[in-house]
Design brief:
CATH class of the largest domain: Alpha Beta
Number of strands: 11
Structural class: alpha/beta
Oligomer: single chain
Order of helices and strands: HEEEHEHEHEHEHEHEEHEH
Helix content: 40-55%
Family: Belongs to the DapB family.
InterPro entries: DapB_C (IPR022663), DapB_N (IPR000846), DHDPR_bac (IPR023940), Dihydrodipicolinate_Rdtase_pln (IPR011859), NAD(P)-bd_dom_sf (IPR036291)
GO cellular component, one term: chloroplast stroma
CATH topology of the largest domain: Rossmann fold
Shape: globular
CATH architecture of the largest domain: 3-Layer(aba) Sandwich
Pathway: Amino-acid biosynthesis; L-lysine biosynthesis via DAP pathway; (S)-tetrahydrodipicolinate from L-aspartate: step 4/4
Strand content: 15-25%
Main location: plastid
């Protein structure tokens, strides 16, 4: 994901700082992306490194795509240093995450979904849930989501859509989500093209009436990472504007970015 965001940023005319953070085994490595050599630093001295980079680049905005287990520690680091950030990583303790950022007054865009069109779909679902609560009372729900095997948690997008269906009157437990991570099943059962096994997001939500005579199906399938990378760049530009204007509001999501109406 980092490589896709870097390439999209360069294409948009941004100037990425050639530094990133990784695990203990990654420290000292260099990777090439978008024609740039990126230095990878391990976790041992990341606070000092980030502080130094932020001092050298006062307009810096960090982009975070890591793992659920790293969400809270990373947010605490950014807030301690005082650097604005865009976080597309899902999972972690979300309540703690928002409290950490709110207490620090650091500017941030935090969204489990960075794809603009998918966010628009989510916004439409939320409007329907708010205006027509209970419209699907009694209906049963089946949810299947398929992502690359490296994605360990349930999709944040799926959780958000399920939340809307619950407001619409559907009873559903998150444990019922069918997670597809096996490549053979992804090809044969879900229909994921083989070339996108390492980067895709397929979601299906199937509603059935109590008597089984009516059904609704919502589906959104994404191959590759370009939709998220482009949305991330919009989030960076949006947040840079908010920081420059010293806006009172500090925490935003991708719906805020959509509502701004300045997407490329």
């Amino acid at each position: 994901m980092g490589r896709a965001v870097l390439e999209a940023s360069i294409s948009a005319g941004l100037q990425p700082v050639p530094i990133c953070f990784g695990g203990p085994e990654d420290g000292g490595k260099t990777v090439e992306a978008g024609g740039k050599e990126i230095i990878v630093h391990g976790p041992s001295d990341r606070e000092n490194i980030l502080s130094s980079v932020f001092e050298e680049h006062p307009n810096l905005i960090v982009v975070d795509y890591t793992l659920p287990a790293a969400v809270n520690d990373n947010a605490e680091l950014y807030c301690k240093v005082g650097v604005p950030f865009v976080m597309g990583t899902t999972g972690g303790d979300r309540e703690k995450l928002y409290k950490t950022v709110a207490d620090s007054k650091v500017y941030a865009v935090i969204s489990p979904q960075m794809g603009k069109q998918v966010v628009a779909f989510l916004a439409a679902m939320e409007i329907m849930a708010e205006q027509f609560p209970g419209a699907f009372s009694g209906y049963s729900l089946q949810v299947m989501e398929s992502h690359q095997a490296s994605k360990l948690d349930t999709s944040g997008t799926a959780k958000a859509v399920i939340s809307c269906f619950e407001k619409l009157g559907v009873s559903f437990d998150l444990d019922e989500v069918q997670l597809i991570r096996d490549p053979v099943q992804q090809i044969e059962m879900v229909g994921v093209p083989e070339e996108y096994l390492l980067g895709h997001a397929f979601h299906m939500y199937h509603l059935t009436s109590p008597d089984g005579t009516v059904s609704f199906e919502f589906q959104h399938n994404v191959c590759g990472r370009s939709i998220y990378a482009e949305g991330t760049v919009d989030a960076i530009l949006f947040l840079a504007k908010k920081v420059k204007l010293k806006e009172e509001k500090r925490i935003y999501d991708m719906i805020d970015v959509l509502r701004e109406g300045n997407m490329r």
